[in-house]
Design a protein that fits this description.
This protein is mainly alpha-helical. 81% of the residues lie in helices and 0% in strands. It is elongated, with a radius of gyration of 17 Å.
Length: 135
């Protein structure tokens, strides 16, 4: 549950910082991938069929991002008791999952993925600030 004990905070702070940092980094990498890949593909046509453009990359990214985000938001909630960062994160992960559905055109899937990445980044940044405000 939500506990605000100084002793518990000081012991879990480095681990929570590392998890939150990894989650923010993964969200930024996802956003960078979505925004920079079209430019990279224009510059380097040889990588058009590479792993980064494949569906498997997106499945692997969601498989890594979703658990890291869930853990980071849970640790943040235990510290600051605010649910809104986790709601942003859940909406972001939902967008990432939604973009994996095969019915989307490529542009729509990319737009949904970028929106999900932005929601995740916003949730993680809010979570980070709230955790730091209590320290």
């Amino acid at each position: 549950m939500c506990a605000r004990r100084a002793i518990a905070r000081s012991r879990s702070q480095p681990a929570a910082d590392a998890i939150e940092g990894a989650a923010i980094s993964a969200s930024f990498l996802c956003l960078l991938h979505c925004l920079a890949l079209p430019l990279l593909l224009l510059a380097l046509p040889a990588v058009a069929g590479a792993f980064l453009r494949s569906e498997m990359f997106h499945y692997a990214a969601v498989a890594l991002v979703a658990p890291a985000a869930a853990l980071a938001f849970w640790l943040g909630f235990r510290r600051h008791c605010a649910v809104h960062p986790a709601l942003f994160g859940a909406a972001g992960v939902a967008c990432l999952l939604l973009a994996l559905l095969p019915s989307w055109e490529e542009f729509a899937a990319d737009a949904i993925t970028v929106a999900g990445s932005l929601l995740l980044v916003g949730g993680h940044m809010t979570n980070w600030r709230l955790r730091r405000a209590i320290a």
